[in-house]
Design goal:
- It is a single chain.
- The protein has 162 residues and is an alpha+beta fold.
- The protein has one domain: CBS-domain (Roll).
- It is 38% helix and 19% strand.
- The protein contains seven helices and eight strands, in the order H-E-H-E-E-E-E-H-H-H-E-H-E-E-H.
- The protein has a four-stranded mixed sheet with strand order 1-8-7-6. Strands 2-3 form a two-stranded antiparallel sheet.
- The protein starts with a helix and ends in a 5-residue tail after the last helix.
- The relative contact order is 0.21.
């Protein structure tokens, strides 16, 4: 089985000039296949449709978490209202400032075991799938590979075992 056999065709993407308000809205209502269920990350494409990054929910969490927080002694500090306030401030930040630039990708003709290798070595949960020209044609999710493994395991076990 190959990446193209399990990938979900790409419907939604971001541009580097999108702001976080636009990005979170797309993540919230993003299409996965034919359903609008929300997604945990989206590719960022330039004006020519070339992949230049990914924006994930983790990137958005980092956008509202001030870097100085990890260095502070928070003894009597109050967290009340902080998330909401920082989220409002972060809303106008550009995707380009927050996206992950070193994106792990697979080619549509890569075998699934190659994809598993990348997922485990690079510790990612989703990877853009590129066609022969380098254009993003879909997303491959760790969950879908897991279900393919599960299906193979269960069919093998139901075949009469030892």
């Amino acid at each position: 089985m190959k990446a193209k056999d399990l990938m979900v065709p790409i419907h939604d993407y971001l541009t580097p000039d999108s702001n976080l308000k636009e990005a979170v809205n797309l993540l919230k209502v993003g299409e996965r296949g034919d359903q609008k269920v929300g997604v945990m990350g989206l590719p960022v494409l330039d004006k020519n449709g070339k992949l230049i990054g990914m924006l994930s929910m983790t990137d958005i969490l980092k956008a509202v978490y001030p870097s100085y927080m990890s260095m502070m002694n928070l003894g009597g500090f109050t967290w009340d209202g902080m998330l909401e306030s920082l989220a409002k401030q972060a809303g106008d930040k550009k995707v380009e400032m927050l996206m992950t630039r070193d994106v792990v990708t697979v080619r549509e003709d890569d075998f699934l075991m190659e994809c598993v290798d990348r997922i485990l070595k690079k510790q990612v949960r989703r990877m853009p799938v590129l066609d022969k020209t380098g254009k993003v044609v879909g997303m491959l999710y760790m969950r879908d590979i897991f279900f393919a493994i599960t299906k193979a395991m269960l069919e093998e076990d139901s075949g009469g075992g030892k």
